[in-house]
Amino acid sequence: MQIGKVKFITKDDSEKDLCNKRGVVEVHTNKISMLAETIEAKEDIDVERAQTAKRLAEKHLETATGSEVDVYKTALSRAINRLKVAGVLE
After folding, report:
1. How buried is 45 (Cβ within 10 angstroms: 0-12 exposed, 13-18 middle, 19+ buried)?
2. What is the tens place of the pLDDT at every residue in 32-86?
3. Distance of alpha carbon 66 from its chain centroid, rounded?
């Protein structure tokens, strides 16, 4: 898995949106196992913090060089993903 959104549907058919940062998914006959580097529930996302992270990553990307570019692109992707899962961005 890459940075993105994970939607779980529980046994009682309720849905739970999560954002993740890299991981592995294993699918078995009646069971799914997921190991993620980080995972955060929609209701736990600090929108203000994610917006700040997005602005900072965008600012740093303007002057980044070499390997810094990948670091700030990843930071920007994570911030945007958190904002999307939180319902702030489409």
Report:
1. buried
2. 888 888 889 999 999 999 999 999 999 999 999 999 999 999 999 999 999 999 9
3. 24
Domain ranges of the chain: 4-86
Report d(CA 53, CA 51) in Å as an integer.
5
Question: Are residues 77 and 58 in contact, defined by beta-carbon separation less than 8 angstroms?
Answer: no
Residue 73 amino acid letter:
K
Residue 66 DSSP code: T
Give dist(CA 49, CA 79) in Å, integer. Answer: 9
CA atoms within 13 A on the CB side of 2: 3
